Amino acid sequence: MSDSRVDVVVVGAGGSGLAAAIEAARAGGRVLVLEKGDRVRGSTGWSVGSLSASGTSHQRRAGIGDQPGHHFEDLGRFNAGKGEVDNLELRQILVNESAAALTWLEQLGVSFVGPSPEPPHRVPRMHNVVPSSAAFGVCLARECARLGVDIRCGVSVTGLIVEHGRVRGVEAQGADGAVQTWRAERGVVLAAGDFSASREMKARYFGQEVVEADPVNPLATGDAQRIAEAVGARIVNGRMGNPPKLRFVPAPPGWLQRLPATPWVGRIMALAWRTLPQWVVRPFVIRFLTTALGPEATLFRCGAVLVDTDGRAVPIDPRNTARHLPLTPQRMGHIVFDARCAAQLRSWPNFVSTAPGVAYAYLDDYRRGRPDIYREANTIEALAGLIGAQPDLLAASLGERTHGPWFALGPVRGYVTLTDGGLAVDTRHRVLGQDNLPIEGLYAAGSAGQGGLLIEGHGHHLGWAFVSGRRAGRSIMGILEN
Ligand SMILES: Cc1cc2nc3c(=O)[nH]c(=O)nc-3n(C[C@H](O)[C@H](O)[C@H](O)COP(=O)(O)OP(=O)(O)OC[C@H]3O[C@@H](n4cnc5c(N)ncnc54)[C@H](O)[C@@H]3O)c2cc1C
User: Fold this and answer.
1) 418, 423, 466, 468: which to mutate for ligand 1, most atoms within 8 A of CB?
2) What residue numbers bound the domain in which 122 lies?
3) Are residues 233 and 338 in the same domain?
4) Considering the entire predicted model, what is its pTM?
5) Which of 91, 149, 162, 234 is the most buried if burial means most Cβ atoms within 10 Å?
6) Ligand 1 center–CA 461 separation, angstroms
7) Could you read off the pLDDT of 239-250 as tens digits, one per residue?
8) The domain that contains 130 carries what CATH number?
9) Separation between Cα atoms, residue 466 and residue 461, nearest integer Å
């Protein structure tokens, strides 16, 4: 067992943790970041990379007038009908500081394109990172290195050291199983993400279809929430989160994934986006849509059927198409359809997937771009052979549809991208105990420190990760102004 001293320990090297580390180090702190994974990534690195902000330079360049007050109101519209109590103080902080967080990221070398529209936002606010969300990790880790922040991967924090009612450090386990402790003079920032990968925590708040659904990020096991609960913290709005979504199994790495997410590549892509005609840019966007995004409900409106691995039809809930798939034996299936449906999926408004307001991918884009998940056959028997289903079950699932050739897209799974239950925090990102008083020396940011904030719509989770992470880093160093 070793025991080392720093000023601040940050738990988790996703967007919020790295932002906290940078701000704490800029304020003069000796900062240690402990990351369970073998590299800097987190859900931040799995994300699409949309960040919604108001009053940005991108909006001004596009002639869009905007202000945080309007953003605050529109965010309320996204949340309407959720039936949960929102944290309006944190919402105010988010909308006030998202534009500054975006500028801060750009100063660190992250490039964005946009803004794109997404109703009910009254104006376009969604900015998208290029070349990919890996740029967050690359650029923030580079700044950490410049500032002397010590990032240790393969170390999982398992508990907090509390002395006389104050958090004094952490206990952690390395990949070799060795237990280590670190003492933190100023305290600990919990930035370990959500609990979409914890069956036990999901079972507390959600139904079986969410428990069984696969997480996108297998390391999002709610460790921060559990570690903090053990010292008296509480989770707010635990039952909020995105329902499982249908997604195709991951694509084998292609040229887009192999592009280095360095500042130069980002700048060139952002420039190309702004200056080149759409037909030049579209192949990049389509590659992204067909690898990163899942199938939309439009497929089922055109007559497609979701089947399990045997070929048995899986019911479709139009509001949540992935609802029943996680409850099938293999938790996996295919989307099958006939030629009549396929013909509809070749043009607007029947796209297969979309980044709303940015672009749409059609069936032919999948035929060209995702041969690993696109199947076509002249008979149902042949299609069943291609997807490993039983021909009679598949034929029964396709029912009255008689127009061959036959198509399948898949495998698909129901994935949970995120859960919204974070620790209760105050506006200085101090974790609150059962008595609503701060637990001394304990801070939380990002999903772990979501504090009951409701953040529907694309781009607000990343916004919160960077806004709250930066603030938590300043707060723990005693320099947060408001
Ligand atoms: C597929 C997908 C797409 C998304 N797209 C978008 C989008 O476009 N826009 C948007 O706003 N949001 C999006 N989100 C949500 C967004 O990515 C997250 O809400 C956000 O990145 C959370 O940041 P974070 O820093 O709180 O957590 P993370 O980025 O998950 O970082 C937490 C880190 O803590 C580490 N960790 C966990 N436990 C421990 C432990 N015990 N010890 C040490 N380290 C630990 C994890 O390994 C991880 O690296 C998406 C999410 C997914 C999965």
Assistant:
1) 418
2) 2-242+417-476
3) no
4) 0.94
5) 149
6) 9
7) 998 889 999 988
8) 3.50.50.60
9) 9
